[in-house]
Write a structure and sequence with these properties.
Layout: H1 2-35, H2 41-72, H3 78-106, H4 118-141, H5 148-166, H6 171-174, H7 177-239, H8 243-260, H9 273-283
């Protein structure tokens, strides 16, 4: 019954996400056609679907890379991961995506390296977009965690080189190799720096949380064993007392037992050595 209910909820969530996708894509096409004054409408719609196809594959690969551990460990459910990813992916693109977009748009292909008709540049970008999306689809199908950035930059470089070859232009003049070198360097530095930060962060967590918890567990086990031995030792001590001493000591213990569990009791009020020792164990 619970599994059926969960399946129904997941189906409802999927339906909601699908409706949102169709609604947003439809609105974007409506807005974009007006923005472009219906110039090259077919090309604009085709580019939009290429972009949606690319976004689909980015979600299937990059988002899975980011949330795979959280979902796999049960910290997040798939719908929760989708919701968080949707919010923060859009937020990241809006807040910090401008510089990345500008680099991809102008920092890889030198438009002054050859005479390019604006539509030729459009075809370069559309080819790169479709190529990157198809590669991501193949990688996701094979379960390969790949980089979207690698794919889209490789697609732009490949399309630009093909355009240069068709126009008989030296490819060296068309590609900004120095900028491409900086991007490639970032591919090397990013995992290295990520690994260093991860190591430092986890070492702090291990020392201050994981190792401390292990130490605390072992210490508590030791205290409990000492407390058990103390009770046994005190039982033997009590049995060795004379009858009159037992009565006197039992009276003190009865007094201590009455006040011991009170939240505001004063340890100085304890009369028996047994409860004084018990208090020391409980304090530890």
């Amino acid at each position: 019954m619970a599994q059926t209910q969960s399946s129904a909820n997941l189906k409802l969530i999927n339906t909601v996400f699908a409706a949102m996708l169709v609604g947003m894509v439809g609105y974007f096409i409506y807005w974009g056609l007006g923005y472009t004054h219906y110039n090259h409408s077919g090309l604009f719609i085709l580019a939009t679907f290429f972009g949606v196809f690319m976004a689909f594959n980015v979600g299937g690969n990059d988002i899975a890379n980011s949330f795979g551990t959280s979902v796999g460990s049960g910290t997040l459910t798939i719908p929760q991961a989708l919701l968080i990813a949707a919010v923060f992916e859009v937020s990241g693109a809006v807040i910090a995506g401008g510089e990345v977009t500008d680099t991809i748009r102008k920092g890889i292909v030198d438009l002054n390296g050859m005479h390019l008709d604006p539509m030729q540049f459009v075809f370069i970008m559309m080819s790169a977009l479709l190529a990157a999306a198809l590669w991501l689809l193949f990688a996701s199908h094979k379960g390969l965690p790949v980089s979207t950035t690698h794919a889209i930059i490789g697609g732009i470089v490949g399309s630009a080189l093909c355009m240069a070859a068709l126009n008989g232009v030296d490819s060296v003049a068309l590609i900004q190799w120095d900028k491409l070198g900086e991007i490639a360097l970032s591919w090397i530095l990013s995992p290295v720096l990520g690994g260093i930060v991860s190591y430092l962060l986890f070492s702090r967590i291990k020392k201050n949380v994981l190792d401390y918890n292990s130490w605390a567990d072992n210490t508590l086990k030791g205290i409990k064993l000492e407390k058990k031995a103390y009770k046994e030792e005190h039982r033997l001590f009590f049995e060795a007392l004379s009858e009159s001493e037992k009565v006197e000591y039992a009276t003190k213990m009865a007094h201590d037992a009455q006040i011991y569990d009170e939240p505001d009791f004063d340890p100085e009020e304890l009369q028996s050595e047994y409860y004084r020792g018990l208090h020391r164990f409980d304090s530890r």
